[in-house]
From TrEMBL:
This is TetR/AcrR family transcriptional regulator. Transmembrane segments: none annotated. GO terms for molecular function: DNA-binding transcription factor activity; transcription cis-regulatory region binding. Gene3D superfamilies: Tetracycline Repressor, domain 2. InterPro entries: Homeodomain-like_sf (IPR009057), HTH-type_TetR-like_transc_reg (IPR050109), HTH_TetR (IPR001647). Residues 16-76 form the HTH tetR-type domain. Coiled coil: none annotated.
Amino acid sequence: MAARPYRQVARESAVRGTEQQIVEAFATLMETRWFDEVTLDEIAAAAGTTRQTVIRRFGSKAGVLSALAAQQDSTIRTHRWQDAPAEVAGIIGVLIADYERSGDLVVRTLNQEDRIPEFGAVLDQGRRGHREWITDMFRPWLDKREGARRDDLLAELLAVTDVWVWHLMRRRQGHDAERTQRLMTQIVERLLREE
């Protein structure tokens, strides 16, 4: 009798391991391919499993996308909220570290938003999370303003900390992560000084 619960735990662990491999394989494929180009067979092959296993675990490619989005959201929340810095440079440092981990995949997903209906909910969740984080991190500055002035500052902070700004500086202008962090910090500090 004692062996049965152990086998169930081991089986559940194996299932979670397979699911994680599928999600990771899908994320890797999405780094260089468009969503509609990636097939269930390719996801299965990259994960070392079968198409039927992918379907059984996630139902469809959209199901794998949802699992990836949930995992990304959890990872972002863990990294961004873990040690909340009090100064602007530290806040931007946390943001840049996050973008260095996931920014390229996020930008690739954003580029497909108009073509792939499934991306809407995923990206809206990310936008809400970013807004929540910016509001939390910059609360001391936001709370010094009221009404429209506060709303305007929040809108400006959301714009200048958006992943597209990181993408522009890192991928289009060719700055390294350190310079990108310094430039974004300077932009935000100027914004916060304005009255």
